[in-house]
Design goal:
Four Helix Bundle (Hemerythrin (Met), subunit A)
Length: 157
């Protein structure tokens, strides 16, 4: 017998490892797709109430609604920037004052509640102005939005 054994081929073990990793990746993607298509718990959840009401509106009504509320949105963005600065200062303050942070949180919650209330009023005014046939069509579109299976972000305003 020879004193020099055959050298081990390292590339074979590397190739097998890479092949195993690719197979596991493919199986993971396939299982994830099947789970998503079959509609696990995530697939069964209806969309949020507000977004569904908005998406079901005709495109022109969505555009007008955005325009009517854009000023409020810009004001809110400025207030959020100020509130984040105040929150940063409050978190760094020594001694820490939880009441100051709580006041900022309450202020933001109130602003969001006011924004939602304004959106609901505008939405209700739009729906109230619809004819019976338009409201029926809107109800059909709303039903489609709620039961839509796609969670993709295509074709969204």
């Amino acid at each position: 017998m020879s004193d020099n054994p055959k050298p081990r081929r390292r590339w074979v073990s590397v190739l097998l490892s890479v092949s195993l990793a690719l197979n596991l990746l493919i199986v993971g993607v396939a299982l994830g797709t099947v789970y998503r298509v079959k509609g696990g718990d995530h697939g069964k959840a209806p969309p949020g109430f507000g977004p569904a009401l908005y998406r079901a509106l005709p495109k022109e009504d969505r555009k007008v609604l955005r325009g009517e509320l854009s000023e409020r949105h810009v004001k809110g963005a400025k207030l959020r920037a100020q509130d984040f600065a105040a929150l940063g200062a409050a978190l760094r303050a020594e001694p820490f004052d939880p009441a100051a942070v709580q006041a900022l949180l309450l202020q933001q919650a109130q602003f969001m509640a006011d924004m939602q209330s304004a959106l609901q009023e505008q939405w209700l005014a739009r729906v109230t102005a619809m004819s019976d046939a338009e409201r029926q069509a809107y109800a059909d579109r709303l039903e489609d939005v709620v039961h839509r299976k796609s969670h993709g972000r295509k074709n969204r305003d």
